[in-house]
Design goal:
This protein is an alpha+beta fold. The protein is globular.
């Protein structure tokens, strides 16, 4: 696991398979995923982690686990992914964090 960015409150780092439980809470939450076509089940979350691990190898970047610095708790993901847009592969910025009132 490699730390990518560290701020006063957050650490952005590579995802690992050990992030499954925390990432499942985020990606399976319907309100968090309201602008995505669907919320994730367990199989999709495992695939999400695996694809991002693969992106680190292929592109040198992907979506990062966003963690609270003081507790280490994973609270979401954000970063760059390569997407097919208009027949061209282009970078896309993404981020996802649970909605809190």
């Amino acid at each position: 696991m490699r730390i990518i960015i560290e701020t006063e409150r957050l650490i952005l780092r590579e995802m690992t398979e050990a992030d499954f439980d925390a990432l499942y809470k985020v990606l399976a939450d319907r309100s968090t995923m309201q602008y995505y076509p669907y919320s994730f089940d367990e199989e999709r979350v495992r695939g999400w982690i695996d694809r991002n691990i693969g992106r680190y190898r292929v592109f040198g970047f992907g979506l990062w686990a966003v963690c609270l610095k003081d507790t280490g708790e994973l609270i979401g993901d954000c970063g760059l992914t390569m997407q097919m847009i208009g027949g061209e592969t282009k970078p896309e910025v993404r981020g996802r964090f649970p909605h809190k009132e």
